[in-house]
Amino acid sequence: MEQSKYLGILKEYWGYTQFRGIQWEIIESICSGKDTLGLMPTGGGKSVTFQVPALAMDGVCIVITPLIALMKDQVDHLRKKNIRAYAIYGTMQRNEILTILDNAVLGGVTLLYISPERLTSELFLTKLKHMHVSFITVDEAHCISQWGYDFRPSYLAIAKIRKIKPGIPVLALTATATQATINDIQEKLAFRKENVSRMSFERKNIAYIVRQTKDKLAETMKILNAVDGTAIIYTHNREKTKEYAEALASIGTTATFYHAGLDPVTRSDRQVLWQEDKVKVMVATNAFGMGIDKPDVRVVIHVDCPDSIEEYFQEAGRAGRDGKKSYAVLLRGLHENTTLDKRIANNFPEKDYIKKVYEHVAYFLQVGVGSGYGYTFEFDMDKFCKYFKHFPLNVKPALSILQMAGYIEYSEEEVSFTRMQFLVDRDDLYRLKDMTENENNLVTTILRCYSGLFADLTRISEKLLSQKTGIEESQIYLILKGLSKRNIIRFIPKKNIPHIKYLQNRVVSEEIIIPKNVYEQRRKLFEMRINAMKYYIGNDKFCRSKTLLRYFGETKNEDCGHCDVCIRNNRNDKEQKTTYCNIRNKIIDCLKDGKGHKVDEMRSIDPNYVELNHTLMKMLNDEEIINNDGSYFLNIKL
């Protein structure tokens, strides 16, 4: 296969003259019609492996990815390069979805990004039958595996679309997979033949460090003062993101925070601030980072331990994507093992509790026994927990287990629609004289695009308004917010609202069956991951890079030389060499009189005998001394 064609596409759209690592190996494989699993570390350039062949081949490449924010970001970047890329997600109107799908059928789409949940849509499946598909890409492919750390049942539907499009190759991509996960991915995606392209997960420029501390915030500040460049701080809960960002700001470090509970515009704005180096530090939950391609992150700090090596490795790998020296620091509290053990119980609550949550959800949503199948409801988690005296920490895992058992589908990715209503009548609106040019432009466009705005709240699309007015979406949000403060409009911005969909009619709680593969087996897997994490943070003897690589099945003989364990071992080695040389010299001084001396006569050299005996044994092996009836004699010329 001629590489020049693909290099031409790479140069034209991305400006690179050569493929990196195993990029070409994967491209060659998928373009030859082979099912392919690509294992590439974070920062390895996964997107190139499907975007380049998508441009080279006829038809539409369907990209299945779990995160709406990630697919939107990638589509925006591709559209700026004049690549025909589109995304379909839950908040879009039916006519928007239909237009995109029809364009895909007619050949007007090169890359079509969809969530795995879309695969069960009758509309999508009907249109798919008429599409000319080049190949199917499954990003974050570990999500399809029960052995993967982030298993998502919706991914299992991918194999079904292979039956609709037989013969179309599948490209599966992931940055974290053990051997069991690798095998499971290929089986679940119905690979016609095993085919894995593997790139070493080793990141030679990253120094992995575990540091024990009583005060994680103080230690974080110390690290940031010592390391230049941008940073990411990962924490396990939303409240701590704000706490750390404010603490850093109080000492003059520019910082912002990010988590899934913030509205989309705020998240987008803060991400841009960080990417454009207007703030040094992003403090975030694991909701941040997917698809982030910032090359100069010098340090990633985990102030809370992740649940698995896979999760840690992927997040730590966001440091040093430019190949320069960087650090991944995990701060270990005095009771970190206890904290990790508690997560097992939190993630797998008792089965009776899970059944109780199922029953309370039905009461909350007013779903009667024998009804509910196919219906989707907005689910206000805070209100639910307050009313039934639950904690979100326990409810979310219970809902996840109910989803895997096939009773409901729980989604936090859904985003509500922006809604607005004019609070002044049309005549008064036209009489307003203090509106800016952008405000006038936006109001005029809204009136042209939507009706019923003076009677009730109406759903609007910032994306559509941005296209019509040329005003950035984030600016539209600010304009609408300003008009709301002046009581010209009522404005309800879009925000994340979890949804629950009933996958079968509601049953009484006594009839709920939670299979072993959903509960007991997955609990055991989770315990194994927690134990692997405990081993990693507790290890103080073996190179951290080697420990991480061996978890993923890679054997590496050489130590990295710059993790905290290697530095400590090297320092100990130097100290031991110094000690040996000192005692050796003292032994030589003692024996140079030519008389034999027993060990007791040399006790003053080392009262504990430990180093003395060790040095004597080494000198005997090196034939520097001899032992004659318990007395030592010098065997070298001075």
Distance between the termini: 70 Å
- Our count of domains comes out at 5
The major sheet is characterized as: 7 strands, parallel
Number of helices: 24
Q: Roughly what fraction of the amino acids lie in strands?
A: 5-15%
**Topology, number of strands:** 21
The CATH topology assignment of the largest domain is Rossmann fold
Q: State the secondary-structure class.
A: alpha/beta
Regarding CATH, which class of the largest domain? Answer: Alpha Beta
- Indicate the radius of gyration in whole angstroms: 31 Å
CATH architecture of the largest domain: 3-Layer(aba) Sandwich
Structural topology:
Blueprint: H1 4-14, H2 23-31, E1 36-39, H3 46-56, E2 60-64, H4 68-80, E3 85-88, H5 94-105, E4 111-114, H6 122-128, E5 133-138, H7 158-164, E6 170-174, H8 179-188, E7 196-198, E8 206-212, H9 216-226, E9 230-234, H10 238-250, E10 255-258, H11 264-275, E11 281-284, E12 297-302, H12 309-316, E13 326-332, H13 336-347, H14 351-365, E14 376-378, H15 381-388, H16 392-404, E15 408-411, E16 418-422, H17 426-431, H18 437-449, E17 458-460, H19 462-469, H20 473-485, E18 489-492, E19 499-502, H21 520-538, H22 544-551, H23 564-591, H24 610-621, E20 625-628, E21 631-634
Parallel strand pairs: 1-6, 1-7, 2-4, 2-5, 3-4, 5-6, 8-13, 9-11, 9-12, 10-11, 12-13
Antiparallel strand pairs: 14-19, 15-19, 16-17, 16-18, 20-21
Helix pairs in contact: 1-3, 2-3, 5-6, 13-21, 14-16, 23-24
Q: How would you describe the overall organization of this protein?
A:
It is a single chain. The model has no long low-confidence stretch (mean pLDDT 89). It is elongated and about 115 Å long. It folds into five domains: 4-198, Rossmann fold; 206-338 and 537-551, P-loop containing nucleotide triphosphate hydrolases (Rossmann fold, 3-Layer(aba) Sandwich), CATH 3.40.50; 349-415 and 497-518, Arc Repressor Mutant, subunit A (Orthogonal Bundle); 418-492, Arc Repressor Mutant, subunit A (Orthogonal Bundle), CATH 1.10.10; 564-634. Helix content is 44%, strand content 15%. It is built from 24 helices and 21 strands. Helix 2 runs parallel beside helix 3, helix 14 crosses helix 16 (392-404) and helix 23 crosses helix 24. The strands form five sheets. It has a seven-stranded parallel sheet, with helices on both faces. Strands 8-13-12-9-11-10 form a six-stranded parallel sheet, with helices on both faces. With 638 residues, it is of the alpha/beta class.
